[in-house]
Amino acid sequence: MIEDVKYSMPVNIVVAHGLEAKALVKMLELERHPTSTEFVEYSNSNKLRLLVSGIGKESVAAAVTYLGEQQAFDDGENRAWLNIGIAGHRDAPLGSAWLGNKIIDQSSGASAYPPQLIEGVEVGSVVTVDKPENLYPLDAAYEMEASAFYAEATKYSTAELVQVFKVISDNLEYPISEIDLQSVPNLITAQAPQILTLIERMSEILEQYNSSQRLPSHYHEICSKIRLTVNQKLQLRRLCQRYKALGLEEELGRFAELKASDARKLIRLLAEHIDGVSEA
Amino acid sequence: MFSTIYIEEEVLESERVKNLLGRFAQVPQVICDRYGEVFNRKSQNFRLQKTAPALILAKKYGRKVLTAPSGYGYNDSKSYYFSHMLNCVYDCRYCFLQGMYSSANYVLFINFEDFEEAIEEKIEENNGGGVYYSGYDCDSLALEPVSNFCSHFLPVFRRYPDAELEIRTKSTQVRCLLDTEVVSNCVIAMSFTTNEAAVQWEHKVPSIEKRLEALHKLQLAGWNVAIRFEPLILGAEGLAPYETLFSKIFSKLDVQRLHSVSSGLFRMPVDFHKRIVKLYPDEELYARPTETENGMIGLKTAKESSQLLAIEKLLLKHISAEQYYRCA
Protein backbone atom coordinates (compact mmCIF):
# COMPACT_ATOMS: atom_id res chain seq x y z
CA MET A 1 0.00 0.00 0.00
CA ILE A 2 2.90 2.31 0.57
CA GLU A 3 4.85 1.17 -2.47
CA ASP A 4 4.35 4.47 -4.33
CA VAL A 5 5.98 6.49 -1.59
CA LYS A 6 9.58 7.15 -2.50
CA TYR A 7 10.47 9.86 0.00
CA SER A 8 11.72 9.58 3.52
CA MET A 9 9.15 9.04 6.28
CA PRO A 10 11.03 9.37 9.55
CA VAL A 11 8.04 8.48 11.71
CA ASN A 12 8.24 6.37 14.86
CA ILE A 13 5.06 4.37 15.33
CA VAL A 14 4.44 2.83 18.70
CA VAL A 15 1.70 0.24 19.30
CA ALA A 16 0.90 -1.65 22.47
CA HIS A 17 0.06 -5.05 21.07
CA GLY A 18 1.49 -7.38 18.45
CA LEU A 19 -1.94 -7.70 16.81
CA GLU A 20 -1.99 -3.94 16.21
CA ALA A 21 1.46 -4.21 14.71
CA LYS A 22 0.44 -7.07 12.42
CA ALA A 23 -1.81 -4.92 10.24
CA LEU A 24 0.69 -2.06 10.12
CA VAL A 25 3.58 -4.32 9.15
CA LYS A 26 1.68 -5.37 6.06
CA MET A 27 0.24 -1.93 5.30
CA LEU A 28 3.58 -0.13 5.59
CA GLU A 29 5.76 -2.94 4.23
CA LEU A 30 7.86 -3.19 7.34
CA GLU A 31 10.44 -5.82 8.19
CA ARG A 32 11.27 -7.26 11.55
CA HIS A 33 14.55 -6.07 13.03
CA PRO A 34 16.93 -8.94 13.40
CA THR A 35 18.56 -7.50 16.52
CA SER A 36 17.02 -8.70 19.71
CA THR A 37 16.01 -5.98 22.17
CA GLU A 38 13.44 -5.70 24.91
CA PHE A 39 10.94 -4.54 22.27
CA VAL A 40 9.81 -6.10 19.00
CA GLU A 41 10.88 -3.69 16.26
CA TYR A 42 10.09 -3.25 12.58
CA SER A 43 11.30 -0.74 10.00
CA ASN A 44 11.51 -0.06 6.29
CA SER A 45 13.83 1.76 3.92
CA ASN A 46 11.69 4.92 4.14
CA LYS A 47 12.89 5.38 7.73
CA LEU A 48 9.57 4.27 9.24
CA ARG A 49 10.03 2.52 12.58
CA LEU A 50 7.46 0.50 14.46
CA LEU A 51 7.90 -0.59 18.04
CA VAL A 52 5.63 -2.89 20.05
CA SER A 53 5.69 -1.46 23.54
CA GLY A 54 3.41 -3.71 25.56
CA ILE A 55 0.24 -2.55 27.28
CA GLY A 56 -0.03 0.42 29.67
CA LYS A 57 1.57 3.76 30.39
CA GLU A 58 4.82 2.46 31.84
CA SER A 59 5.42 0.16 28.90
CA VAL A 60 4.77 2.81 26.29
CA ALA A 61 6.91 5.40 28.11
CA ALA A 62 9.77 2.89 28.23
CA ALA A 63 9.41 2.16 24.52
CA VAL A 64 9.46 5.84 23.59
CA THR A 65 12.50 6.44 25.78
CA TYR A 66 14.26 3.47 24.22
CA LEU A 67 13.65 4.70 20.68
CA GLY A 68 14.24 8.34 21.49
CA GLU A 69 17.59 7.71 23.16
CA GLN A 70 18.63 5.39 20.38
CA GLN A 71 17.90 8.05 17.76
CA ALA A 72 19.21 11.01 19.72
CA PHE A 73 22.52 11.03 17.88
CA ASP A 74 21.38 9.35 14.66
CA ASP A 75 21.61 12.25 12.28
CA GLY A 76 20.61 15.26 14.35
CA GLU A 77 17.22 15.41 12.63
CA ASN A 78 13.86 15.43 14.31
CA ARG A 79 11.41 12.54 13.95
CA ALA A 80 7.62 12.35 14.17
CA TRP A 81 5.90 10.08 16.68
CA LEU A 82 2.60 8.29 16.22
CA ASN A 83 0.78 6.06 18.66
CA ILE A 84 -1.75 3.79 16.97
CA GLY A 85 -4.00 1.46 18.88
CA ILE A 86 -7.44 0.15 19.69
CA ALA A 87 -9.79 1.88 22.13
CA GLY A 88 -13.32 1.75 23.50
CA HIS A 89 -16.17 4.26 23.22
CA ARG A 90 -19.67 4.13 24.57
CA ASP A 91 -21.49 4.27 21.24
CA ALA A 92 -19.05 4.88 18.37
CA PRO A 93 -19.29 2.09 15.80
CA LEU A 94 -16.58 -0.55 15.88
CA GLY A 95 -13.91 0.35 13.35
CA SER A 96 -14.44 4.10 13.55
CA ALA A 97 -11.26 6.00 14.36
CA TRP A 98 -9.86 9.41 15.19
CA LEU A 99 -6.79 11.44 15.88
CA GLY A 100 -6.65 12.64 19.48
CA ASN A 101 -7.07 16.40 19.80
CA LYS A 102 -7.34 16.16 23.58
CA ILE A 103 -5.76 13.49 25.75
CA ILE A 104 -6.99 13.19 29.32
CA ASP A 105 -5.01 11.16 31.80
CA GLN A 106 -7.76 9.78 34.02
CA SER A 107 -5.60 9.10 37.07
CA SER A 108 -3.97 12.54 37.25
CA GLY A 109 -6.78 14.51 35.61
CA ALA A 110 -4.22 16.28 33.43
CA SER A 111 -5.03 17.09 29.84
CA ALA A 112 -2.79 17.49 26.82
CA TYR A 113 -3.74 19.01 23.49
CA PRO A 114 -1.72 17.73 20.51
CA PRO A 115 -1.61 20.64 18.01
CA GLN A 116 -3.73 19.83 14.97
CA LEU A 117 -2.01 20.66 11.70
CA ILE A 118 -3.33 17.74 9.68
CA GLU A 119 -6.53 17.99 7.69
CA GLY A 120 -8.49 15.08 6.30
CA VAL A 121 -8.39 12.86 9.38
CA GLU A 122 -11.24 12.53 11.90
CA VAL A 123 -10.50 14.02 15.33
CA GLY A 124 -11.79 13.45 18.86
CA SER A 125 -10.92 13.06 22.53
CA VAL A 126 -8.93 10.26 24.09
CA VAL A 127 -8.94 9.19 27.75
CA THR A 128 -6.03 7.15 29.07
CA VAL A 129 -7.02 4.82 31.89
CA ASP A 130 -4.98 2.58 34.17
CA LYS A 131 -7.49 -0.28 34.00
CA PRO A 132 -9.83 -1.25 31.16
CA GLU A 133 -12.97 0.94 31.16
CA ASN A 134 -16.39 -0.66 30.68
CA LEU A 135 -18.72 2.30 31.04
CA TYR A 136 -17.01 4.94 28.90
CA PRO A 137 -18.51 7.95 30.74
CA LEU A 138 -17.11 10.64 28.40
CA ASP A 139 -17.50 11.06 24.67
CA ALA A 140 -13.93 9.85 24.14
CA ALA A 141 -11.84 6.90 23.07
CA TYR A 142 -10.75 4.98 26.19
CA GLU A 143 -7.37 3.32 26.02
CA MET A 144 -4.25 2.78 28.12
CA GLU A 145 -1.19 4.46 26.57
CA ALA A 146 -1.83 7.83 24.90
CA SER A 147 -1.13 10.22 27.81
CA ALA A 148 2.21 8.61 28.66
CA PHE A 149 3.14 8.31 25.00
CA TYR A 150 2.46 12.00 24.40
CA ALA A 151 4.26 13.16 27.54
CA GLU A 152 7.33 11.08 26.72
CA ALA A 153 7.48 11.65 22.96
CA THR A 154 7.26 15.45 23.31
CA LYS A 155 10.63 15.23 25.06
CA TYR A 156 12.13 14.14 21.75
CA SER A 157 10.09 16.08 19.23
CA THR A 158 7.96 19.18 18.93
CA ALA A 159 4.31 18.66 19.95
CA GLU A 160 2.98 19.19 16.41
CA LEU A 161 4.78 16.01 15.40
CA VAL A 162 3.45 13.81 18.19
CA GLN A 163 0.00 12.36 17.55
CA VAL A 164 -2.20 9.52 18.71
CA PHE A 165 -4.67 7.65 16.50
CA LYS A 166 -7.26 5.38 18.04
CA VAL A 167 -9.49 2.77 16.37
CA ILE A 168 -12.66 1.75 18.19
CA SER A 169 -12.69 -1.94 19.06
CA ASP A 170 -15.34 -2.02 21.80
CA ASN A 171 -18.40 -0.16 23.01
CA LEU A 172 -21.39 -0.70 25.29
CA GLU A 173 -23.00 -3.05 22.78
CA TYR A 174 -19.80 -5.00 22.12
CA PRO A 175 -18.00 -4.82 25.48
CA ILE A 176 -14.30 -5.15 25.98
CA SER A 177 -14.71 -8.61 27.52
CA GLU A 178 -16.03 -9.87 24.21
CA ILE A 179 -13.37 -8.47 21.89
CA ASP A 180 -12.32 -10.96 19.28
CA LEU A 181 -8.59 -10.28 19.27
CA GLN A 182 -8.21 -11.77 15.83
CA SER A 183 -10.39 -8.95 14.47
CA VAL A 184 -7.91 -6.29 15.64
CA PRO A 185 -5.66 -6.40 12.53
CA ASN A 186 -8.74 -6.00 10.34
CA LEU A 187 -9.95 -2.98 12.32
CA ILE A 188 -6.55 -1.32 11.86
CA THR A 189 -6.30 -2.31 8.18
CA ALA A 190 -9.69 -0.76 7.50
CA GLN A 191 -8.21 2.57 8.59
CA ALA A 192 -5.36 2.38 6.08
CA PRO A 193 -6.40 5.53 4.13
CA GLN A 194 -6.45 7.66 7.30
CA ILE A 195 -3.25 6.14 8.64
CA LEU A 196 -1.42 6.68 5.37
CA THR A 197 -2.65 10.27 5.12
CA LEU A 198 -1.47 10.84 8.65
CA ILE A 199 1.99 9.39 8.06
CA GLU A 200 2.43 11.25 4.80
CA ARG A 201 1.37 14.59 6.23
CA MET A 202 3.51 14.13 9.32
CA SER A 203 6.45 13.35 7.05
CA GLU A 204 5.83 16.47 4.98
CA ILE A 205 5.66 18.68 8.06
CA LEU A 206 8.76 17.00 9.41
CA GLU A 207 10.68 17.57 6.19
CA GLN A 208 9.71 21.24 6.27
CA TYR A 209 10.97 21.45 9.83
CA ASN A 210 14.18 19.49 9.29
CA SER A 211 15.13 21.28 6.10
CA SER A 212 14.93 24.65 7.84
CA GLN A 213 17.19 23.35 10.61
CA ARG A 214 19.64 21.44 8.39
CA LEU A 215 23.25 22.59 8.69
CA PRO A 216 25.58 23.05 5.74
CA SER A 217 27.86 20.05 5.19
CA HIS A 218 30.85 22.30 5.89
CA TYR A 219 29.80 22.39 9.53
CA HIS A 220 30.43 18.66 9.85
CA GLU A 221 33.62 18.99 7.83
CA ILE A 222 35.01 21.64 10.19
CA CYS A 223 33.92 19.66 13.26
CA SER A 224 35.77 16.60 11.99
CA LYS A 225 38.97 18.56 11.41
CA ILE A 226 39.21 20.77 14.48
CA ARG A 227 38.74 20.09 18.15
CA LEU A 228 35.90 22.27 19.42
CA THR A 229 34.44 22.80 22.86
CA VAL A 230 30.67 22.50 23.28
CA ASN A 231 30.38 26.28 23.30
CA GLN A 232 32.54 26.61 20.20
CA LYS A 233 30.39 24.03 18.42
CA LEU A 234 27.32 26.13 19.20
CA GLN A 235 29.03 29.26 17.89
CA LEU A 236 30.15 27.45 14.75
CA ARG A 237 26.67 26.04 14.25
CA ARG A 238 25.07 29.47 14.32
CA LEU A 239 27.75 30.93 12.06
CA CYS A 240 27.18 28.13 9.54
CA GLN A 241 23.42 28.80 9.67
CA ARG A 242 24.08 32.47 9.01
CA TYR A 243 26.34 31.73 6.05
CA LYS A 244 23.63 29.46 4.64
CA ALA A 245 20.85 31.99 5.21
CA LEU A 246 22.86 34.71 3.50
CA GLY A 247 23.69 32.47 0.55
CA LEU A 248 27.37 32.33 1.47
CA GLU A 249 27.84 28.58 1.72
CA GLU A 250 30.60 28.62 -0.87
CA GLU A 251 32.61 31.03 1.21
CA LEU A 252 32.08 28.81 4.20
CA GLY A 253 33.64 26.06 2.12
CA ARG A 254 36.80 28.10 1.75
CA PHE A 255 37.11 28.37 5.51
CA ALA A 256 36.54 24.63 5.86
CA GLU A 257 39.57 24.07 3.63
CA LEU A 258 41.82 26.25 5.79
CA LYS A 259 44.34 24.34 7.83
CA ALA A 260 43.50 26.28 10.94
CA SER A 261 44.19 24.34 14.06
CA ASP A 262 42.99 27.04 16.43
CA ALA A 263 39.21 26.79 16.78
CA ARG A 264 38.94 30.17 18.47
CA LYS A 265 40.76 31.84 15.61
CA LEU A 266 38.63 30.12 12.99
CA ILE A 267 35.40 31.18 14.68
CA ARG A 268 36.67 34.75 14.94
CA LEU A 269 37.58 34.78 11.24
CA LEU A 270 34.21 33.35 10.25
CA ALA A 271 32.38 35.93 12.36
CA GLU A 272 34.42 38.87 11.11
CA HIS A 273 33.99 37.81 7.53
CA ILE A 274 30.22 37.36 7.65
CA ASP A 275 29.69 40.58 9.61
CA GLY A 276 31.83 42.47 7.12
CA VAL A 277 30.04 41.02 4.13
CA SER A 278 26.49 41.41 5.38
CA GLU A 279 26.65 44.70 7.26
CA ALA A 280 24.90 47.37 5.28
CA MET B 1 -9.94 29.58 8.78
CA PHE B 2 -9.03 27.81 12.04
CA SER B 3 -7.73 24.26 12.39
CA THR B 4 -9.43 23.84 15.78
CA ILE B 5 -11.35 26.02 18.22
CA TYR B 6 -10.37 25.56 21.87
CA ILE B 7 -12.87 26.93 24.36
CA GLU B 8 -12.33 27.53 28.03
CA GLU B 9 -15.06 25.72 29.90
CA GLU B 10 -15.82 28.91 31.84
CA VAL B 11 -16.85 30.84 28.72
CA LEU B 12 -18.69 28.04 27.01
CA GLU B 13 -22.11 29.42 27.90
CA SER B 14 -21.40 33.04 27.02
CA GLU B 15 -23.56 34.44 24.22
CA ARG B 16 -20.50 35.78 22.40
CA VAL B 17 -18.96 32.31 22.35
CA LYS B 18 -22.19 30.58 21.38
CA ASN B 19 -22.64 32.92 18.42
CA LEU B 20 -19.09 32.42 17.33
CA LEU B 21 -19.18 28.66 17.59
CA GLY B 22 -22.40 28.62 15.64
CA ARG B 23 -20.62 30.33 12.77
CA PHE B 24 -17.77 27.82 12.77
CA ALA B 25 -19.73 24.66 13.47
CA GLN B 26 -17.62 22.68 10.99
CA VAL B 27 -14.37 23.39 12.88
CA PRO B 28 -13.44 20.79 15.54
CA GLN B 29 -14.10 22.17 19.01
CA VAL B 30 -12.14 21.19 22.11
CA ILE B 31 -12.96 22.20 25.67
CA CYS B 32 -10.07 23.18 27.93
CA ASP B 33 -9.81 24.48 31.50
CA ARG B 34 -7.56 27.49 30.93
CA TYR B 35 -6.15 28.79 27.68
CA GLY B 36 -2.60 28.50 29.01
CA GLU B 37 -2.88 24.71 28.87
CA VAL B 38 -2.92 25.00 25.09
CA PHE B 39 -1.16 28.28 24.48
CA ASN B 40 1.73 28.24 26.92
CA ARG B 41 2.79 24.60 26.69
CA LYS B 42 6.47 23.95 26.06
CA SER B 43 7.62 21.83 23.11
CA GLN B 44 5.48 23.79 20.67
CA ASN B 45 6.71 25.24 17.42
CA PHE B 46 5.39 28.66 16.44
CA ARG B 47 6.60 28.27 12.87
CA LEU B 48 4.82 24.97 12.29
CA GLN B 49 1.64 26.15 14.01
CA LYS B 50 1.54 29.19 11.76
CA THR B 51 0.65 26.83 8.91
CA ALA B 52 -2.68 25.90 10.57
CA PRO B 53 -3.44 28.13 13.55
CA ALA B 54 -6.23 27.38 15.98
CA LEU B 55 -8.51 29.85 17.74
CA ILE B 56 -8.67 29.82 21.54
CA LEU B 57 -11.66 31.46 23.22
CA ALA B 58 -10.80 32.53 26.72
CA LYS B 59 -11.48 34.85 29.59
CA LYS B 60 -8.83 37.40 30.48
CA TYR B 61 -8.00 37.64 34.17
CA GLY B 62 -5.69 40.14 35.85
CA ARG B 63 -4.72 43.53 34.52
CA LYS B 64 -6.34 44.32 31.23
CA VAL B 65 -5.03 47.82 30.55
CA LEU B 66 -1.27 48.20 30.77
CA THR B 67 1.10 51.14 30.59
CA ALA B 68 2.54 51.46 27.09
CA PRO B 69 6.32 51.12 26.73
CA SER B 70 8.03 54.49 26.93
CA GLY B 71 8.44 56.16 23.57
CA TYR B 72 5.64 54.11 22.02
CA GLY B 73 3.18 56.90 21.53
CA TYR B 74 2.82 60.15 19.67
CA ASN B 75 2.28 62.63 22.43
CA ASP B 76 3.07 63.22 26.06
CA SER B 77 -0.29 62.05 27.38
CA LYS B 78 -0.28 58.95 29.49
CA SER B 79 -0.34 55.96 27.19
CA TYR B 80 -1.78 52.52 27.70
CA TYR B 81 -2.42 49.41 25.68
CA PHE B 82 -4.89 46.60 25.91
CA SER B 83 -5.01 43.29 24.10
CA HIS B 84 -8.32 41.59 23.55
CA MET B 85 -6.40 39.16 21.39
CA LEU B 86 -2.97 37.51 21.36
CA ASN B 87 -1.23 36.78 18.07
CA CYS B 88 -1.89 37.97 14.58
CA VAL B 89 -3.39 36.43 11.46
CA TYR B 90 -0.50 37.76 9.40
CA ASP B 91 2.92 36.17 9.29
CA CYS B 92 5.51 38.94 9.26
CA ARG B 93 8.96 37.55 9.64
CA TYR B 94 10.23 40.58 11.54
CA CYS B 95 7.43 40.43 14.13
CA PHE B 96 8.39 40.14 17.80
CA LEU B 97 5.32 38.02 18.57
CA GLN B 98 7.15 35.02 17.08
CA GLY B 99 9.59 35.24 19.95
CA MET B 100 7.11 36.29 22.59
CA TYR B 101 4.73 33.33 22.46
CA SER B 102 5.42 29.62 22.17
CA SER B 103 2.21 29.11 20.20
CA ALA B 104 0.97 30.71 16.98
CA ASN B 105 -2.66 30.05 17.88
CA TYR B 106 -4.91 33.08 18.26
CA VAL B 107 -6.28 33.76 21.72
CA LEU B 108 -9.46 35.82 21.71
CA PHE B 109 -10.47 37.09 25.13
CA ILE B 110 -14.21 37.29 25.02
CA ASN B 111 -14.90 39.17 28.25
CA PHE B 112 -15.06 42.50 26.43
CA GLU B 113 -17.18 43.97 29.22
CA ASP B 114 -14.31 43.49 31.70
CA PHE B 115 -11.93 45.22 29.29
CA GLU B 116 -14.46 48.01 28.91
CA GLU B 117 -14.66 48.44 32.68
CA ALA B 118 -10.85 48.49 33.00
CA ILE B 119 -10.55 51.06 30.19
CA GLU B 120 -13.18 53.25 31.78
CA GLU B 121 -11.42 53.08 35.13
CA LYS B 122 -8.16 54.12 33.51
CA ILE B 123 -9.84 56.97 31.64
CA GLU B 124 -11.40 58.20 34.89
CA GLU B 125 -7.98 58.01 36.57
CA ASN B 126 -6.69 60.26 33.81
CA ASN B 127 -9.51 62.78 34.13
CA GLY B 128 -11.16 61.56 31.00
CA GLY B 129 -7.98 61.46 28.93
CA GLY B 130 -5.05 59.27 27.97
CA VAL B 131 -4.08 57.44 24.81
CA TYR B 132 -5.11 53.79 24.46
CA TYR B 133 -3.45 51.53 21.95
CA SER B 134 -5.01 48.41 20.58
CA GLY B 135 -3.01 46.17 18.29
CA TYR B 136 0.18 45.71 20.28
CA ASP B 137 -0.15 41.92 20.70
CA CYS B 138 -2.38 41.36 17.67
CA ASP B 139 -3.85 43.10 14.64
CA SER B 140 -7.04 44.66 15.93
CA LEU B 141 -8.95 44.73 12.67
CA ALA B 142 -7.75 41.61 10.88
CA LEU B 143 -10.10 39.32 12.76
CA GLU B 144 -12.93 41.86 13.06
CA PRO B 145 -15.53 39.68 11.31
CA VAL B 146 -14.93 37.07 14.00
CA SER B 147 -14.28 39.24 17.04
CA ASN B 148 -16.57 42.24 16.51
CA PHE B 149 -13.98 44.22 18.41
CA CYS B 150 -14.88 47.57 16.83
CA SER B 151 -18.59 47.23 17.37
CA HIS B 152 -17.95 46.87 21.06
CA PHE B 153 -15.08 49.24 21.78
CA LEU B 154 -15.82 52.22 19.53
CA PRO B 155 -18.95 53.18 21.50
CA VAL B 156 -16.85 53.09 24.69
CA PHE B 157 -14.50 55.72 23.34
CA ARG B 158 -17.33 57.72 21.85
CA ARG B 159 -18.43 58.31 25.43
CA TYR B 160 -15.00 59.73 26.36
CA PRO B 161 -14.09 62.30 23.70
CA ASP B 162 -10.88 63.37 25.47
CA ALA B 163 -9.45 59.87 25.53
CA GLU B 164 -7.85 58.67 22.34
CA LEU B 165 -7.96 55.18 20.85
CA GLU B 166 -5.36 54.09 18.31
CA ILE B 167 -6.16 50.95 16.36
CA ARG B 168 -2.93 49.66 14.90
CA THR B 169 -3.42 47.43 11.87
CA LYS B 170 -2.31 46.12 8.49
CA SER B 171 -5.80 44.95 7.66
CA THR B 172 -8.24 46.12 5.01
CA GLN B 173 -11.22 44.92 7.09
CA VAL B 174 -12.65 48.41 7.45
CA ARG B 175 -16.28 47.67 6.62
CA CYS B 176 -17.20 47.87 10.31
CA LEU B 177 -15.71 51.37 10.49
CA LEU B 178 -17.26 52.59 7.26
CA ASP B 179 -20.65 51.41 8.50
CA THR B 180 -20.26 53.35 11.75
CA GLU B 181 -20.56 57.02 12.52
CA VAL B 182 -17.03 58.45 12.81
CA VAL B 183 -15.52 58.40 16.28
CA SER B 184 -13.47 61.59 16.29
CA ASN B 185 -11.07 60.42 19.02
CA CYS B 186 -10.24 57.18 17.27
CA VAL B 187 -7.23 56.86 14.97
CA ILE B 188 -6.74 54.04 12.49
CA ALA B 189 -2.98 53.64 12.19
CA MET B 190 -1.85 51.56 9.22
CA SER B 191 1.64 50.06 9.17
CA PHE B 192 3.73 50.02 6.02
CA THR B 193 7.15 48.86 4.97
CA THR B 194 8.68 49.25 1.53
CA ASN B 195 7.36 47.03 -1.23
CA GLU B 196 10.64 45.09 -1.21
CA ALA B 197 10.36 44.43 2.53
CA ALA B 198 6.69 43.53 2.23
CA VAL B 199 7.35 40.97 -0.48
CA GLN B 200 10.21 39.43 1.45
CA TRP B 201 8.86 39.43 4.98
CA GLU B 202 5.13 40.15 5.15
CA HIS B 203 3.22 36.98 4.44
CA LYS B 204 -0.58 36.98 4.10
CA VAL B 205 -0.64 40.78 4.50
CA PRO B 206 -2.83 42.75 2.04
CA SER B 207 -0.83 44.60 -0.61
CA ILE B 208 0.30 48.17 -0.06
CA GLU B 209 -2.23 49.31 -2.67
CA LYS B 210 -5.13 47.56 -0.93
CA ARG B 211 -4.16 48.94 2.47
CA LEU B 212 -3.87 52.38 0.97
CA GLU B 213 -7.25 52.04 -0.67
CA ALA B 214 -8.77 51.11 2.68
CA LEU B 215 -7.17 54.14 4.34
CA HIS B 216 -8.36 56.37 1.53
CA LYS B 217 -11.94 55.20 2.03
CA LEU B 218 -11.66 55.79 5.75
CA GLN B 219 -10.29 59.26 5.23
CA LEU B 220 -13.07 60.11 2.79
CA ALA B 221 -15.58 58.90 5.37
CA GLY B 222 -14.06 61.29 7.91
CA TRP B 223 -11.99 58.92 10.04
CA ASN B 224 -8.66 59.96 11.50
CA VAL B 225 -5.95 57.93 9.86
CA ALA B 226 -2.26 57.67 10.64
CA ILE B 227 0.74 56.06 8.98
CA ARG B 228 3.29 53.91 10.77
CA PHE B 229 6.50 53.11 8.89
CA GLU B 230 7.56 50.15 10.98
CA PRO B 231 9.88 48.47 11.11
CA LEU B 232 12.41 50.36 9.05
CA ILE B 233 14.88 47.71 7.98
CA LEU B 234 17.75 49.60 6.56
CA GLY B 235 19.82 47.81 4.00
CA ALA B 236 21.77 47.94 0.84
CA GLU B 237 18.76 48.90 -1.27
CA GLY B 238 19.17 52.54 -0.26
CA LEU B 239 16.51 55.19 -0.26
CA ALA B 240 14.81 54.46 -3.58
CA PRO B 241 12.19 52.03 -2.15
CA TYR B 242 11.24 54.64 0.45
CA GLU B 243 10.92 57.36 -2.15
CA THR B 244 8.54 55.12 -4.08
CA LEU B 245 6.55 54.17 -0.96
CA PHE B 246 6.22 57.76 0.29
CA SER B 247 5.14 59.04 -3.13
CA LYS B 248 2.54 56.30 -3.42
CA ILE B 249 1.07 56.91 0.03
CA PHE B 250 1.13 60.68 0.18
CA SER B 251 -0.23 61.16 -3.32
CA LYS B 252 -3.23 58.99 -2.46
CA LEU B 253 -4.14 60.44 0.93
CA ASP B 254 -5.04 63.92 2.08
CA VAL B 255 -1.76 64.71 3.83
CA GLN B 256 -3.12 67.74 5.67
CA ARG B 257 -5.66 65.54 7.37
CA LEU B 258 -3.28 62.82 8.45
CA HIS B 259 -3.36 62.42 12.19
CA SER B 260 0.33 61.48 12.48
CA VAL B 261 3.17 59.68 10.78
CA SER B 262 5.82 57.72 12.63
CA SER B 263 8.81 55.53 11.99
CA GLY B 264 10.46 52.88 14.09
CA LEU B 265 13.55 50.77 13.62
CA PHE B 266 13.67 46.98 13.76
CA ARG B 267 14.13 46.29 17.48
CA MET B 268 13.09 43.55 19.89
CA PRO B 269 14.11 42.13 23.27
CA VAL B 270 17.18 39.88 23.08
CA ASP B 271 15.29 36.83 24.38
CA PHE B 272 12.64 37.12 21.68
CA HIS B 273 15.34 37.38 19.05
CA LYS B 274 17.05 34.22 20.35
CA ARG B 275 13.81 32.27 20.14
CA ILE B 276 13.08 33.50 16.63
CA VAL B 277 16.57 32.54 15.46
CA LYS B 278 15.87 28.99 16.66
CA LEU B 279 12.62 28.95 14.71
CA TYR B 280 14.06 30.53 11.57
CA PRO B 281 17.78 29.74 11.39
CA ASP B 282 17.41 29.91 7.60
CA GLU B 283 16.00 33.46 7.55
CA GLU B 284 18.22 36.06 5.97
CA LEU B 285 16.95 38.86 8.23
CA TYR B 286 18.11 37.05 11.36
CA ALA B 287 21.49 36.16 9.83
CA ARG B 288 22.45 39.82 9.61
CA PRO B 289 24.87 41.31 12.16
CA THR B 290 23.13 42.67 15.21
CA GLU B 291 23.89 44.93 18.13
CA THR B 292 22.40 44.97 21.59
CA GLU B 293 21.60 47.93 23.77
CA ASN B 294 19.72 47.86 27.06
CA GLY B 295 18.39 44.38 26.43
CA MET B 296 17.07 45.27 22.97
CA ILE B 297 18.58 43.90 19.81
CA GLY B 298 18.66 45.64 16.46
CA LEU B 299 20.42 45.32 13.15
CA LYS B 300 24.00 46.52 13.12
CA THR B 301 24.33 48.82 10.18
CA ALA B 302 27.34 51.00 9.63
CA LYS B 303 25.29 53.98 8.58
CA GLU B 304 22.08 53.45 10.51
CA SER B 305 21.76 56.96 11.90
CA SER B 306 22.62 58.64 8.61
CA GLN B 307 20.20 56.38 6.71
CA LEU B 308 17.45 57.06 9.20
CA LEU B 309 18.04 60.79 8.90
CA ALA B 310 17.95 60.52 5.13
CA ILE B 311 14.63 58.65 5.28
CA GLU B 312 13.22 61.24 7.65
CA LYS B 313 14.39 63.99 5.33
CA LEU B 314 12.54 62.30 2.49
CA LEU B 315 9.47 61.92 4.65
CA LEU B 316 9.46 65.56 5.65
CA LYS B 317 9.21 66.55 2.02
CA HIS B 318 5.68 65.15 2.18
CA ILE B 319 4.50 65.91 5.70
CA SER B 320 5.04 68.58 8.32
CA ALA B 321 7.44 68.11 11.22
CA GLU B 322 4.46 68.44 13.61
CA GLN B 323 2.86 65.37 12.08
CA TYR B 324 5.96 63.23 12.52
CA TYR B 325 7.41 61.36 15.46
CA ARG B 326 10.07 58.70 15.83
CA CYS B 327 8.96 55.64 17.77
CA ALA B 328 11.50 54.50 20.35
Automatic annotation (TrEMBL), chain A:
Listed GO biological process terms: nucleoside metabolic process
Gene3D superfamilies: Nucleoside phosphorylase domain
Annotated GO CC locations: endospore-forming forespore
A Gene Ontology molecular function term of the record: DNA photolyase activity
The name this protein goes by in its record: Nucleoside phosphorylase domain-containing protein
From TrEMBL, chain B:
Cross-referenced PANTHER family: SPORE PHOTOPRODUCT LYASE (PTHR37822:SF2), SPORE PHOTOPRODUCT LYASE-RELATED (PTHR37822)
Annotated InterPro entries: SPL (IPR049539)
UniProt protein name: DNA photolyase
Keywords: Lyase
Keyword Lyase found: yes
Gene Ontology MF: a single term: S-adenosyl-L-methionine binding
GO cellular component: endospore-forming forespore
Highest taxon above the source species: Bacteria
